[in-house]
TrEMBL record:
Gene Ontology MF term list: hydrolase activity
Record-linked InterPro entries: AB_hydrolase_fold (IPR029058), FrsA_esterase (IPR050261), Xaa-Pro-like_dom (IPR000383)
Pfam families: Peptidase_S15
Family: Belongs to the AB hydrolase superfamily.
Protein name, UniProt field: Alpha/beta fold hydrolase
Recorded superkingdom: Bacteria
Alphabetic keyword roster: Hydrolase
Domain called Xaa-Pro dipeptidyl-peptidase-like: residue spans: 135-366
Length: 401
């Protein structure tokens, strides 16, 4: 008998269900509550329009309750409400990541940003909204420190394709603070506010982004300059190791759901009969084939729409051809710091993690989370506490804490 998987939890639609488990993954860090999340799922059913409406409505209700608590002087209750609203608002817009920018995606982003800012002002830890210059652009960020005297080891949180810096608080930031780390949360090009408010798109040389973050952190007396770490999850599992190929001031890197050579896998998103034509085939023919696949598969449509928006491409073929520079092939051996890789057993993105592991010359560890542990999904969704335990235990030991 094979181990059960954490699928079919609340929705028959696998995309809905995957995003729902992603939402549930924030519960250990205050990002959602079980009952209100499941009741909302029942209201949504299989209606894609209802997905946005119902998660927004839940966010509105939780925000209103938090405002009442705050007005009555109940700061902890208010903070907890603002944090849950952050997740519900962010979740509402996930299926509207497509060019051109949809008003619903913009509303989702701005509402979750506002909710998190309200929460951050009430945190027990010191949270500061800052800006960091990256290639002439001032990007918004949050810098937070735990209780006690610094300097602190510090974790740079690197988010994924469709997340936000506010989500990274739940996806590693809160766990780091609890363990005495300072944290830096920032949307890089292609992510969250950098995409929606500044129109910046993904770039393969993520070392440019992380180097700017390290430069900024080194100006802060609260930061232990010898213990700056990058933690990347989902697409960040590629971006963080990519940054470490050139940014050698990092003391360690954690890549969750890492990918070795994204460009090499792009051809497999083409119909089989066209896979040898990715670079040379007629663009009109290939785009027509890709759009037919998108029409037949909501999952493929989401992949291409999200990719075109975040990378700034007009057609699905441009997106596939533009993936070539996103690789660690020929670069991974430049990483000099210790590296932890993590994958979930049920995540198709784990196919190339072993290639990356084998190419690393530095001290390294590879944790394979399993379905039997309830941790087999992408980014171990649904097993947040287990991921934090293993990842931060490794980090503590690696840094000699």
């Amino acid at each position: 008998m094979t181990d059960p998987t954490l699928t079919g939890v609340a929705f028959a639609d696998p995309q809905f269900d995957g995003q729902f488990v992603r939402l549930l993954d924030t519960i250990p860090y205050g990002g959602a509550d079980f009952g209100e999340a499941f009741i909302t799922a029942k209201l949504i059913g299989d209606d894609r329009d209802a997905w946005f409406v119902q998660w927004q409505a839940l966010g509105d209700r939780i925000m209103a309750d938090a405002e009442k608590s705050l007005a009555a002087g109940h700061a902890v209750s208010a903070r907890e409400g603002f944090l849950r609203a952050t997740t519900y608002y962010r979740t509402s817009g996930i299926f509207h990541l497509a060019p051109p920018l949809d008003d619903r995606l913009i509303a989702s982003y701005r509402n979750q940003k506002n909710a998190f800012r309200r929460a951050s002002a009430l945190m027990d830890e010191t949270f500061t909204s800052v800006t960091i210059p990256v290639d002439g652009q001032e990007l918004d960020a949050y810098f937070a420190t735990p209780a006690g005297d610094g300097p602190f080891p510090t974790v740079i949180l690197v988010g994924g394709y469709d997340g936000t810096m506010e989500e990274t608080y739940f996806a590693g930031g809160a766990a780091a603070l609890r363990r005495g780390y300072a944290i830096l949360l920032m949307d890089g090009p292609g992510q969250g506010g950098a995409l929606i408010e500044k129109g910046l798109h993904f770039r393969p040389d993520w070392e440019t982004v992380v180097t700017a973050e390290v430069d900024w952190l080194l100006t802060r007396p609260e930061v232990d300059a010898e213990k700056i770490v990058a933690l990347g999850r989902s697409w960040g599992g590629f971006l963080a190791p990519r940054a470490a190929t050139a940014e050698h001031r990092l003391a360690a890197v954690i890549g969750d759901a890492p990918q070795y050579d994204v460009g090499a896998g792009a051809k497999f998103l083409l119909p089989a009969e066209y896979r040898d034509q990715l670079e040379t085939g007629d663009a009109d023919t290939l785009n027509a084939a890709l759009r037919a696949e998108m029409a037949a598969s909501a999952e493929l449509a989401f992949t291409f729409d999200r990719g075109m928006l975040t990378h700034g491409f007009d057609t699905p073929l441009e997106y596939l051809r533009g993936s070539a520079p996103y690789t660690l092939a020929g670069l991974a051996d430049r990483i000099s710091c210790p590296v932890l890789l993590a994958t979930g057993e049920n995540d198709p993105r784990n196919r190339s993690a072993q290639q990356l592991y084998d190419a690393l010359p530095s001290p390294k560890e590879y944790i394979r989370f399993t379905n039997a542990e309830g941790a087999g999904e992408h980014d171990e969704a649904g097993a947040a506490a287990l991921f934090s335990q293993r990842a931060f235990d490794w980090l503590d030991e690696t840094l000699g804490r």
